[in-house]
Design goal:
Layout lengths: L2 H18 L5 H9 L5 H10 L7 H6 L12 H10 L3 H23 L1
Helix pairs in contact: 1-3, 2-3
């Protein structure tokens, strides 16, 4: 099985898992979102599918992605997740803190 076929099956599997709203599948979807070697579009799809669970605790597991500046491609998707659960006031400080960490980490790499 080639990489493209693997990724295609993974996307289809995520669709099925997120539609099931089975709580036991949440950790798997979170792991997909956090796995660095997967393509960005698959990880974004995983983050978006977490909205279907309606569980704000997933946000705390996803925000650490933003501690690394290379992961800022996920920023809008994570903000959309937070907004969809109507908890922006609770998570705005955590978003700022993650941004600050990413900025400092990037600065250290440059120096």
């Amino acid at each position: 099985i080639g990489k493209q076929q693997y990724y295609s099956m993974l996307i289809k599997l995520m669709d099925v898992m997120s539609e099931q709203n089975n709580i036991q599948l949440k950790p798997i979807i979170i792991e997909i979102a956090m796995t660095e070697h997967l393509p960005y579009h698959i990880r974004i799809k995983a983050i978006k599918s977490l909205e279907n669970f309606g569980d704000v605790t997933v946000i705390d597991k996803i925000i650490p992605l933003l501690n690394d500046s290379k992961n800022y491609i996920f920023y809008d998707t994570i903000v959309d997740l937070i907004l969809s659960m109507d908890v922006m006031l609770d998570y705005e400080p955590k978003l700022r803190q993650a941004s600050f960490k990413a900025m400092n980490n990037q600065r250290e790499l440059i120096e």
